[in-house]
Amino acid sequence: MRAIIVDDESLAITYLISVCEEIPDIHIVGEFTDASAAIEFVKDNPVDLAFLDIEMADIDGITLGKKLHELDNSIVLVYTTGYEQYALDAFKNHAIAYILKPCDVEDVRYAIETAKLLVNKNKKQVFIRTFGRFDVFVNETPVIFSNAKAKELFALLVDQRGGEVSMEQAIDVLWEDKPYGASVKSLYRRAVADMKNTMNALTSQSIFYIGRATCQLDTSSVDCDYYQLLLGNKNRIKEFSNEYMFDYSWADPTLLKIQSIINM
To answer: Three-class SS string for 108-141?
Structure first.
């Protein structure tokens, strides 16, 4: 879990670092006495947890928390402060903890463990990379498809962003050189089965809706760089390098769409 600390008291930062060093799986990736610097950091770097002071010289902690959530609303907020009166505002800002200084070690530990549970709960098992070559990962491990058309069908469903894809549509894209008939329908059904079985063997999540002659992706069950870019995620926009599913020529219209969005 990647965490930042924002506090205009260097001693408070040092103390929190010492506590975090004793807890597994938490890494302090940024320490800031200036709130504006923290905002700039989060624009370009993924962060799971933010420890925020309330009263600071440039931007108060409540406002800072709101700005961080505008950049990434999955960041877990913990406030560490010497002032009791801001607790209600902090919890309205979806903070998980409000710890009064001097911070009790056990309170900090409890906040971190709670944050870890939230981060793990919100993290989706399946990540889909579309920038460049199309690839699928389950728990950060690449998925190997034994059937190339099964992988391409998966890519088509991703490109359609949860829209229903009929058997006829899929065949027209994936087997454009074959006449529509029983033979190519059999190839389609095999690709659907291989795609579904491959993913079911690796994840407990059900990510497809398979009908009699249709299939679609449950976009809410996956994480995808393309979808995040459409939501305005600045890190994903920065990662985009003018390539989208370059193995598949049918994906070119979406590439043009992404380019137009970025150039707006």
So the answer is: HHHHHHHHHHHHHHHCCCEEEECECCCEEEECCE
